[in-house]
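Supplementary Note 3. Input sequence used for the single-chain structure prediction.
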Amino acid sequence: MPIKHYKPTTPGRRGASVQDFSDVTKKKPEKKLTIYLKQQAGRSAQTGKLTVRHRGGGAKRLYRVIDFKQNKYDIPATVTAIEYDPNRGPRIALIQYTDGDKRYLLAPSSLKVGDSVLSSRGLIPIVVGNRMPLEQIPVGTMVHNIEFQPGVGGKLVRGAGNAARVMSMEGDHVQLKLPSGERRLILKRCAASVGEVGNPDYRLVRLGKAGRRRLQGWRPAVSGKAMNPVDHPHGGGEGHQPNGLKSGPKPKWGKLAYGGKTR
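The predicted structure, written as discrete structure tokens, is reproduced below.
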């Protein structure tokens, strides 16, 4: 997916770029595979308190229900369309099984309309889009949409352009090299899809102005040192003070942001 630039007719347009949608073959989503999600603006459904800061507003959008499990085994499906999804970076593929059932899945790179995809618990051809347990995938293969536990659906490596590499088989586990560079052991019975997630140029898009960020549902963020001492560990003082090496940077809840244990 190339990136498109426009003439700099305004200051916001000058630094902005947009996606090229030449790879999208169908504009309107499949009605039966969409649901309406009420926007919570970062508030918990249980307590009503903010659990994610700086969220709210944004353009209304339907949620496309993605089949992260792909648990219709050994039934071939044909890709009927490649669609844009406003809820995620990669494109999504609309597939239709031989029994007429339609589902959405993350579209890997090089997948196109007319291709066939297959999901199985056994050994099947190592073709982009096919899904099988990690124990059936050769070492060196790039995979995505990886499960943590067998049967729960893919949780890892789902962002645009991402892929993990199968490094080795170690007893009941498979060692994967994740996009971050971390090497992680995953149970070999967990399923993964072959190939890398599509739309790798998504990270190159520049929004250009704050308004586009607001349309995505993000609200302004205020730095800690601009707050009062009661609101943030970095707050207060005459002017804006640096964090200091001794105390270290912290979020507003006082826990170390860098250098503290993460596990």
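The mean pLDDT is 92. The CA atoms of residues 86 and 100 lie 26 Å apart.
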